[in-house]
Amino acid sequence: MAYENIQVEKKDGVGIVTLHRPQALNALCAALVDEVGQAMRTFDADPEVGCIILTGSEKAFAAGADIKEMKDKSYQDVADEDFITDDWEVITTIRKPVIAAVSGYALGGGCEFAMMCDFIIAADTAKFGQPEIKLGTIPGAGGTQRLTRAVGKSLAMYLCLTGDMIDAETALRAGLVAKVVPADSLQEEAMKAAKTIAGLSQPVVRTCKESVNRAFETTLAEGMRFERRLFHSTFALDDRTEGMSAFAEKRKPNWKNR
Ligand code: CO8
């Protein structure tokens, strides 16, 4: 499949999607968002892929939705086409883990795209922000919702109301990112984490991701019940038997993915 706004690569069980609109700092035009969705779905269905990385360039993960593409839209236009709906959310429907490897700007829709991934590894040059307010609008793909759940009300309000950016270290302290690494080792670090995940039992990885995600959708009591049932369900897998036997026998597990 030939893409115009992204590059895709498959390496060591990892699918890599690189946003590639250098002339616009990877601004998320409709065609790019569509291509990301297609590439993600393709990797999700590929049995050779155990983990996916979404990344951008050194200067920008993505500087937001494409302002030039949306600037002339009217209320009627965006309401009629239900602008920013399912296409944007494809990342959240992927069953395999998706890591955002962020260098440079992750602004507006770019920050929202990163937050749709399962976790973010940031280069020390990364900058996160929701500058929509400076354009006379507000975030529309999770900037007031996922960000608030990630960093709490005060910092989310600050970012959304001022449009200011925060650096990678601040994002780390706030819990927005999992890890900060030197810019020149970002891809290597993201690959390391992705290969670790891809080398584990895939049904167990899928179950674990589903369980963590449930924490965002339900009460603690319901979530605990859900987790317990999924935990029990892993005892139906050959891989659970293998994992524990391998530990007891002091050897590496040989996962069968079933
Ligand atoms: N959209 C379109 N083009 C962009 C965008 C963007 N978001 N960001 C940068 N570009 C373009 C610039 O226009 C410029 O193009 P040209 O060379 O043709 O003039 C090129 O990329 C390089 O940008 P700059 O010259 O501005 O680069 P600087 O290094 O000087 O500045 C900044 C970098 C600070 C990142 C600056 O480009 C900037 O402020 N960009 C806009 C950031 C922004 O406001 N993002 C939020 C957009 S709105 C949004 O994301 C809403 C999300 C809602 C959900 C999704 C809806 C579809």
UniProtKB/TrEMBL annotation:
Top EC class for this record: lyase
UniProt entry keywords in alphabetical sequence: Lyase
PROSITE patterns on file: ENOYL_COA_HYDRATASE
EC number per UniProt: 4.2.1.17
Coiled coil region boundaries: none
GO molecular function: enoyl-CoA hydratase activity
InterPro entries in the record: ClpP/crotonase-like_dom_sf, Enoyl-CoA_hyd/isom_CS, Enoyl-CoA_hydra/iso, Enoyl-CoA_hydra_C
SUPFAM superfamilies: ClpP/crotonase
NCBIfam families found in the cross-reference section: PRK05862.1
Family statement drawn from the similarity comment of this UniProt entry: Belongs to the enoyl-CoA hydratase/isomerase family.
The protein's name in its UniProt record: Enoyl-CoA hydratase
